[in-house]
Amino acid sequence: MARALAGDLDAYEVLVQRYSAVAHRTAALLGAGDEAADVVQEAFVKAYRHLAKYRTDSPFRPWLLRIVANETHNLTRSRGRRAELALRLAQVRETVVGDDPAGTVVEDERRARLLAALRELPDRERRVLVCRYLLQFSEAETAQVLGWPVGTVKSRASRGLARLRERFGPGEEVDDAH
Amino acid sequence: MPTDRPGTPDTPEMPDMPDLERELTALGAELDVPPPPPAPEVARAVRRRLQRPRGRRGFRPGWRPVTIGVALVTAILLGATPQGRAAVATVLRFAGVEIHVDPAPRPAPSPAPSPAASSPALPGERRVSLAEARARAPFRVLVPAALGAPDEVRLADGDRVVTLHWRARPGRPAVRLDEFAGRVEPVWRKDLGPPYPEEVRAGTRTALWIPRDHGLTYYPEGSQSPLTYERRAGPTLIWQHGGTGLRLEGLPTSGAATRIAATLR
């Protein structure tokens, strides 16, 4: 880390390798979609150029991911595109046929509805829920990545969850799928 | 198939997590995320870009084209680090030329500067007539009246660069004038140490005078290909005339260079 800070590209390359996967997933889930690879590359280039602003007593990961989140935000804004359109359900479940096809179908529908509800959330609420749950960042890390105070993360997350619950329902209907 | 259904016991990783939150967490694993490129590949791509100048990718909005008069875009590349690294490289972009001023510039190639026609050739460089160069170049090809008709005209890299050469004469060294589209994508890179290029006037236009030898690199069309042209350049005047970017090399002083530049027709 110290060597990367001193402008050593070899050392920085090691950091890039270590964090490229999480950076990619963060960009993709925050809305970069197929352009996640571009966003990540851009973010690493910017991070290197701003290494002087990085405070060595804080963790590198959220500092980097904040740049990734900002780049993703800029991208989706500049394209005038709703970021959430990039979120798609994987089709892998269709090939992984379980012993309970009917239950799987019900559950797929449920996931699809949850995703649709998530997509329709206001941008800020969706971003905070993506960070907290889909990416499984802690509250503190989410706050750093999105650049908001922890209190804001808490309030926007609970508002987003409440809105999801309203639209999506409590979920009891799948209880009998077994 | 393991699922996070309401009513199932909490998993050890997520104690006390309400159902909706667990479903959201599970959703994260179900989403179609484009596979990341292999980490070493990302690292290499990033490194390549860091070793090249800024703003060369299509994705991000680059600097705005220079449209009115002359604009100087200054950017700080690297700030000082906590280790007390005092070196701050500055990048000036001007008239299609990117000038890197660094207290410890990357070393210029060793041969003595030679603006002569025998210096290394640009990609696809060939000899043409002035009329052909004018017909093909996507910018106005201008000739300083003070120098008269050039002894040689070269066209290079898909008509992107026109180079005019004048051989040495008594009282005047050999002179080279490169002309290119003076906007948007940088065509040249110059690496120099202090002092900063000097702002001078060439007729009614602002120009930059680089008083010392420096490294000169040509960015080929398309920009992603490896650098193919690099040499040591002597003192150079850079300016822009309409949409044409110009670099005049071979004259020893800014006075001599600007007097010639002012006679551009």
Automatic annotation (TrEMBL), chain A:
Top-level taxonomic group = Bacteria
What keywords sit in the KW lines? Sigma factor, Transcription, Transcription regulation
In the record, the note on similarity to other proteins reads: Belongs to the sigma-70 factor family. ECF subfamily.
A GO molecular function term, named singly, is: DNA binding
**Which InterPro entries does the record match to this protein?**
RNA_pol_sigma-70-like, RNA_pol_sigma-70_dom, RNA_pol_sigma70_r2, RNA_pol_sigma70_r4_t2, RNA_pol_sigma_r2, RNA_pol_sigma_r3/r4-like, WH-like_DNA-bd_sf
What Gene Ontology biological process does one annotation of this record name? DNA-templated transcription initiation
Q: Which organism is it from?
A: Bailinhaonella thermotolerans
Segments forming domain RNA polymerase sigma-70 region: 15-82
Metal-binding keyword on record: no
Query: What positions does the domain RNA polymerase sigma factor 70 region 4 type occupy?
Result: 112-164
| CDD domains linked to this entry | Sigma70_r4
Identify the PANTHER family for this entry. Answer: RNA POLYMERASE ECF-TYPE SIGMA FACTO, RNA POLYMERASE SIGMA FACTOR
- Protein name as catalogued: RNA polymerase sigma factor
